[in-house]
């Protein structure tokens, strides 16, 4: 096994199937000087499953409740040249995860921070959702307060990308109804539950149908909700004609075509042809 470089090593742990651990993560688990975990029991169990021995090393807890107390100790270990491993309870560290504070503190202190990528609920959901993946926006857990949640959804409605949310089974029914109100019940979506686990389930349908489909169900497990971007606005001929008339009063044809195409989200070629049809000279 190669020697482990000093620094903070962030490893991704399985989100369900234990064999989704990477070979590099196993090397780091076996070789790092100090092991730190959001849930020490989960990490110990993972190491047992893969036959990785502790060999007298400590496994320290690091989570939202003790982060402020633990960070100075861990930063000191890093300053002493130790290799420190941090593992989330499941998935990739720092994604809706307390490890962000530790990584940020190490970076601010000028200490090495390295990532061993692997399992991620966000990426797994994006793979199986069947929705556009060329541009996406991860929004994490919606705020608990109704006002903050409403503001977040208003901002999300304007994002020209596929949206991904984490949500708990207890709140998913309410959240789907709020999404229907803010984004529209016809927006395509995929509810991804218990990814990579025995009872994995993916429901693909418009938001309104999805809300009805789970209305009387009591869901369990981790949920990632993937929501399609809004359909692009397509101006009708009347709108295009009026926009061209207004622009041509003060601009050259070239300038008018460029502005109208930008404002209406239309190809310049189509707008130029419409300008020519009006008898306008270039």
CATH topology name of the largest domain, in short, is: Cobalt-precorrin-4 Transmethylase, domain 1
H-E order: EHEHEHEHEHEHEHEEHEHHH
Helices, by number, come to 11
Poorly predicted ranges (pLDDT <50, ≥5 residues)? none
* Name of the CATH first level of the largest domain: Alpha Beta
Domains counted in the coordinates: how many?
A: 3
Content of β-strand: 15-25%
Q: From the alpha carbons, calculate the radius of gyration and give it in angstroms.
A: 25 Å
Secondary structure tally: strands: 10
- CATH superfamily (homologous) name of the largest domain: Tetrapyrrole methylase, N-terminal domain
Strand numbers in spatial order across the main sheet: 3-2-4-1-5
Give your account of this protein's structure.
It is a single chain. This protein is an alpha/beta fold and 282 residues long. It has three domains: 113 residues, Cobalt-precorrin-4 Transmethylase, domain 1 (3-Layer(aba) Sandwich), CATH 3.40.1010; 106 residues, 2-Layer Sandwich (Methyltransferase, Cobalt-precorrin-4 Transmethylase, Domain 2); 41 residues. The chain contains eleven helices and ten strands. The protein has a five-stranded parallel beta sheet, sandwiched between helices. Helix 6 links the parallel strand 6 and strand 7. Helix 6 crosses helix 7.
């Amino acid at each position: 096994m190669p020697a482990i470089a000093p620094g903070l090593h962030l490893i991704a742990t399985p989100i369900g199937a234990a064999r989704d651990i990477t070979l590099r993560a196993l090397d780091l688990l076996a070789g790092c000087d100090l092991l730190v975990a959001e849930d020490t029991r989960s990490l110990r169990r993972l190491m047992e499953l893969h036959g990785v021995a502790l060999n007298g090393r400590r496994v320290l807890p690091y989570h939202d409740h003790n982060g402020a107390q633990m960070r100075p100790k861990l930063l000191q270990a890093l300053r002493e040249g130790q290799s420190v491993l941090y593992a989330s309870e499941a998935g990739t560290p720092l994604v809706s995860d307390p490890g962000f504070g530790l990584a940020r503190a190490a970076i601010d202190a000028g200490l090495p921070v390295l990532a061993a990528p692997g399992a991620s609920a966000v990426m797994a959901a994006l793979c199986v959702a069947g929705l556009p993946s060329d541009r996406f926006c991860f929004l994490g857990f919606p705020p608990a307060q109704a006002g903050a949640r409403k503001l977040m959804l208003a901002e999300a409605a304007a994002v020209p990308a596929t949206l991904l949310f984490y949500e708990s089974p207890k709140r998913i029914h309410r959240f789907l109804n709020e999404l229907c109100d803010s984004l529209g019940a016809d927006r395509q979506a995929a509810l991804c539950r218990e990814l990579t686990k025995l009872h994995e389930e993916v429901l693909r349908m418009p938001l309104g149908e999805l809300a009805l489909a789970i209305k009387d169900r009591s869901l369990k497990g981790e949920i990632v909700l993937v929501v399609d971007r809004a359909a692009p606005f397509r101006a009708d001929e009347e709108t295009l004609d009026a926009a061209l008339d207004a622009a041509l009063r003060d601009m050259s044809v070239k300038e008018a075509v460029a502005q109208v195409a930008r404002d209406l989200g239309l190809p310049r070629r189509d707008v130029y042809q419409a300008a020519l049809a009006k008898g306008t000279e270039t």
